[in-house]
Amino acid sequence: MKGLYKVLISPLFTEKGARLKETENKLLFKVASDANKIEIKKAVEQIFKVKVDSVKTINCKGKLKKMGRYEGKRPDWKKAIVTLKKGEKLDLIEGV
Fold first, then answer.
1. Eight-state DSSP code of residue 49
2. Which of 20, 26, 80, 87 is most buried when burial is the number of CB atoms within 10 A of its CB?
3. What are the structural domains of the chain?
């Protein structure tokens, strides 16, 4: 198993993520592309000291980008939707 901080890369702050957090107690994270659901669950539970109910993962493909006559591609990445158990709460940005 990798280190806990190598599994979770960063939290995702999007409008959809804010709506999921308020209505369904779910959090979005950008995770390592080779991380599995069990590693993600253990990392969230140990870093944030909360209980996780389930984890869903999504592989996001990088977009093709053009700069003039040159073509490139953004990297592929992985997103995790983590559902916390009832009664659990996590504020990633406190004091805002």
1. -
2. 80
3. 4-84 (3.30.70.330)
